[in-house]
Amino acid sequence: MCGICGVIRVESIPVEDSVRRMMRGMIHRGPDDEGYEERPVGRHDDMRSTVGLGFRRLSILDLSPAGHQPMVNAATGDCLIFNGEIYNFVELRS
To answer: Is 79 marked active-site?
Structure first.
C-alpha cells in the first residue's frame, strides 16, 4: 500500500525536512517512486501558512510515470494525493 504524509505549518518554518523524514520512514510502503510538493495556503496573522505533501508509491497496476504523485494541475495549480484503487477504471476510461 502506498504511503501519504504531510505537514501544515502556520509559522514560517520550512516543512520539507519534516515531510521527507516521514517519507523515509515509510519507504517499505512504496519503494517504486516518491514525490514531494509544497504549497502556500491561506493567511494567519500576516504570515503565510505552508503545506508540504509527501508520497511513497507502490506500483501495482499502472507501472508508468503517469502515476507519480502528488499530481499537480498545471492550469490551476491544484495538487492531489490519492491512495486507493479505482476498480472500474476500464469502464471510466472509455
So the answer is: no
